[in-house]
Amino acid sequence: MDRRDFLADLTKLAALCAVVPNDWRVERRLRLADDPFSLGVASGDPTPTGAVLWTRLAPRPLDPDGGMLTAKAAVDWEVAEDERFAKVVQKGRATAAIELGYSVHVDVTGLQPDRWYWYRFRSGVDTSPVGMLRTTPAAGAVSPLAFAFMSCQKYDDGFFTAYGHLAREAQLDLAVHLGDYIYEGPSGPSAVRAHAGGEIRTLDDYRRRYAQYKGDPLLQAAHARCPWLVTWDDHEVDNNYAGSVGENEWESEEQMRARRAAGYQAWWEHQPVRVPRARSWADLTITRTANWGALARFWVLDTRQYRDDQACGDRIQPFGCGTHLDPSRTLLGATQERWLVDGLGASESRWQVLANQVMLAPQDASPGPEVTTSMDQWSGYPVARDRLLAAIAERAPNRTVAITGDIHTNWVNELRRGFLRPDQPVVAAEFVGTSITSDGDGRDVPAERWDAMRRENPHVQWYQTRRGYVHCRVEADAWHTDYRTVPYVRQPDAPVTTASRWRLERGRPGIVRA
């Protein structure tokens, strides 16, 4: 360590000692001259009077404990009405502790509805980047909403270019992440930028993987741009896991519960979520609602933790195989399904939005009379799917929109009252978003492939395989959706274009091109 670094470390150590009266655990490799806010900042789960503010202290993100030197550290936070913090309206102090990975979750209240704020953190002499926070409209207000949704950001498959474009969107009040925020596996020889380490299973493993993803500057910019709603899918724990059943046959239920606990805790430590901690991290409940005044209610779902194991060994299988049509099989679990169905009937919001991980509409993957379908999606639980669609038809018809991730491709689907019987009426819409990077660059869809897809799946209005995100503008009686895509992700700095535009009218079935 040279003299300048040594003096900088002494200054920061003295400042931290002044505000944190704890014993220090000194590690020789730590240099306090490193930025403790290397993972950025975020806000989430907004309300009319506040939101959750997040950061995590990690001066050396890939080191054990993020390279922190002490068991606890004080973190000051501020919320202001202006970017220069001339008018601070809320402030306080939080503690970043080793037990929770030095993460900080501040549930700010006392703000005004339907307006923008700026926030930042301080620890010792270091100041974080500045983030933007938007409170939601007051209850009863029907104010327009502009939001984006996205999923599936496999770090080693490409650059997070789409996030750079999202952060620059002129109209953006909210972002919704639908899962696969990280990927748990090792990197192969064709990786664009390699994962640190092999397949992850322990809490330290998951923390390190999140730290690697969170260090991406474009992801940080998107988080700082506006508040987020976040849920998880499978890769936050293990590919295509179901409840306590993992992908690896050799992993027991006890091993999977331990792995799930590690994955769930690390997810909580790295997301701006208002989710109460559970007695067991393996049983963390993340289902919740978020209102945008009286315009829209978001139903944040969990389609992993409570589902029955996939039928017929998972993957694409013949329709009706094994236990596929067993009416007792569930994707949401009985408690979550009842919560959703009852809530849809009681909600007075103009639009009901299902923040949903896996595709609701079925996809027949085989030409001709044979029907094959994915056992990991809602089509693998067809009785439960049709039960939900029937409830939508009765309680919130043609004012319900499912936003979906997982599948690494773009889809526009009309949802019918049921798909087990033909000629059922359209009762809802589904917009499926592609990945940020997963599966690499993507490709154009040949006309003959699209024609074959539409013949087997007439409810599908559009299909495309490029990367990007989906931007939605919601009004009292109209919904506009733009698919924003980039031509490549294996190289940086790709341009963004709008691949297609769609429109819904509240109370009227069907989706039309805009």
Secondary structure: elements and pairs:
Elements: H1 3-19, E1 41-47, E2 50-56, E3 72-80, E4 88-97, E5 103-108, E6 116-123, E7 126-127, E8 131-134, E9 145-150, H2 161-167, E10 174-177, H3 203-214, H4 217-225, E11 228-230, H5 253-269, E12 288-292, E13 296-300, E14 316-318, H6 334-346, E15 351-356, E16 372-374, H7 382-395, E17 400-404, E18 410-416, E19 426-432, H8 447-456, E20 460-464, E21 467-474, E22 478-486, E23 497-505, E24 512-513
Parallel strand pairs: 9-10, 10-11, 13-15, 15-17, 17-19
Antiparallel strand pairs: 1-2, 2-5, 3-4, 3-6, 6-7, 6-8, 9-21, 12-13, 14-16, 18-19, 18-20, 21-22, 22-23, 23-24
Helix pairs in contact: 2-4, 3-5, 6-7
Architecture overview:
The chain is an alpha+beta fold. It folds into 2 domains: 131 residues, Sandwich (Immunoglobulin-like); 378 residues, Alkaline phosphatase D (PhoD) (Purple Acid Phosphatase, chain A, domain 2). Helices cover 19% and strands 27% of the residues. The protein is built from 8 helices and 24 strands. The strands form 5 sheets. It has a 7-stranded mixed sheet with strand order 11-10-9-21-22-23-24, with helices on one face. A 7-stranded mixed sheet has the order 12-13-15-17-19-18-20. Strand 6 and strand 7 form a beta hairpin. Helix 3 packs parallel to helix 5. The longest helix is centred in the first third of the chain and has 17 residues. The protein is globular. The termini are far apart. The N terminus is likely disordered.
